[in-house]
Amino acid sequence: MSATATSRISASAAVAALQRNGVDHVVTVPDWVQLSLHERLQRGVPGIRLLNTTNENQCITVAAGLTIGGRKPVLVMQNQGLYNGLNTLRAVCLDAHVPLVFMVGQFGREYANLGQDPRQSRRTMVRIMEPLLEAIGVPFVRIETDADFDGLEDAYARAERERGAVVLLVGAPMGWC
User: Fold this and answer.
1) Per-residue b/e over 61-82, b at no fewer than 16 CB within 10 Å?
2) How far apart, in whole angstroms, are the C-alpha atoms of residue 113 and residue 135?
3) How many folded domains does the chain comprise?
4) Which carries the bigger pLDDT value, residue 94 or residue 114?
């Protein structure tokens, strides 16, 4: 199988997974890798409110407030944004123990690396993401195909159980279907 065939993700599969898991808010700084998801959410999805923020730190704190208020948000951003918001993630999820689930697009990942280990990417921001998350004790799940969204329920359960962050690394651009 080719790399692109093994790394196919659709916005409709993401939306269906969010709905199945009772997500009621998507808090985001728009992400190119997940652009089709943003477009789909902007058109309206029953039960899910889209909240665009100005930066990743605001994204994290808004989602934390929603969580504390009894809502079930997901954060959507790209890898560069997670690097930008790292101190806020540390303060909110690791120190304050607010459980949050992130969907982080692996912006910059080469097509030749799709279906391969992202740690072998030539792009620093892709290659160091997983080791960084491991170093700070944040669990992650790779999302490389639609079927990988089956792990969303486990991500929420783990975030709640461990009272911290769980990151879903969206490894390929989402399709418009």
Assistant:
1) bbbbebbeeeebbbbbbbbbbb
2) 23
3) 1
4) 94
Global pTM reads 0.93
d(CA 74, CA 60): 10
Bridge partners, residue 141, by sequence: 168
**Spatial separation of the C-alpha atoms in residues 39 and 87, rounded to whole Å:** 29
pLDDT of amino acid 169? 96
Phi-psi region of 105 (alpha: psi -120 to 50; beta: other; left: phi over 0): beta
Token pair for 151: 């792990």
Residue 122, domain CATH: 3.40.50.970
Segments forming the whole domain that contains residue 150: 3-175
Q: How many CB atoms within 10 Å of residue 131?
A: 9
